[in-house]
Design a protein that fits this description.
The chain has 5 helices and 7 strands. It is α+β, with helices and mostly antiparallel strands. It has a single domain, classed as Nuclear Transport Factor 2, Chain: A. Strands 1, 2, 3, 4, 5, 6 and 7 form a 7-stranded mixed β-sheet that branches. β4 and β5 form a beta hairpin.
């Protein structure tokens, strides 16, 4: 009896693993085998919600995605240790000035057992006044799950640098190509 129960459980587990393996990867996130499809979809959607709010200066939505005691480490701007300061800095330095674009091919999601997830990637920043993308940076964000709610507890934004001339030329060529569909 015990062998049959164990065999049935193993069969169910094998079927579940096979089903997950057959799911298509979430657009944008790299599937390196460390995160399941559901977690990847969840964190990718959280990233989209966060930065749609950031880009639109929707600070009400933006605020809800951080814990009150969030820690934000920025290699050029220093460290902050609360949500109110993160939101105030976004209002002062981002709203109406900068747009963030995720480099989807760099996005990676890693589970944190019994806590949440790590989101890692790279993004570029575009000046709203000129429409030109001028800078790039890497990021690492820690998301905490509390039931169905997810909030960011830590952010590390680093490696800020200007885009190279080659990167700018590639962006311009992409814009020209999309403006003149064949």
């Amino acid at each position: 009896m015990r062998t049959t129960t164990t065999s049935a459980r193993l069969l169910k587990l094998s079927c579940a693993v096979l089903a997950l393996a057959l799911l298509p990867p979430v657009a944008g996130a790299v599937d390196d085998g460390t995160a399941d499809a559901a977690l990847t979809a969840t964190v990718t959607a959280l990233d989209r919600k966060l930065f749609d709010a950031y880009n639109a200066c929707d600070l009400d939505t933006f605020t809800t995605l951080f814990t009150p005691d969030v820690e934000f480490y920025h290699d050029k701007g220093g460290a902050t240790f609360d949500r109110d300061t993160v939101v105030a800095n976004t209002r002062q330095y981002i709203c109406g000035k900068v747009r963030r674009e995720l480099l989807t091919e760099t996005l990676r999601i890693y589970p944190i057992k019994d806590y949440g997830a790590i989101e890692e990637g790279e993004h570029r920043f575009c000046e709203l006044a000129t429409g030109r993308c001028e800078g790039s940076a890497k990021f690492l964000m820690i998301w905490k799950r509390d039931g169905d709610d997810w909030r960011m507890t830590r952010v590390i934004s680093f490696g800020h640098r200007p885009l190279t001339e080659a990167e700018k030329a590639t962006l311009e060529a992409g814009k020209a190509g999309s403006a003149n569909p064949g």
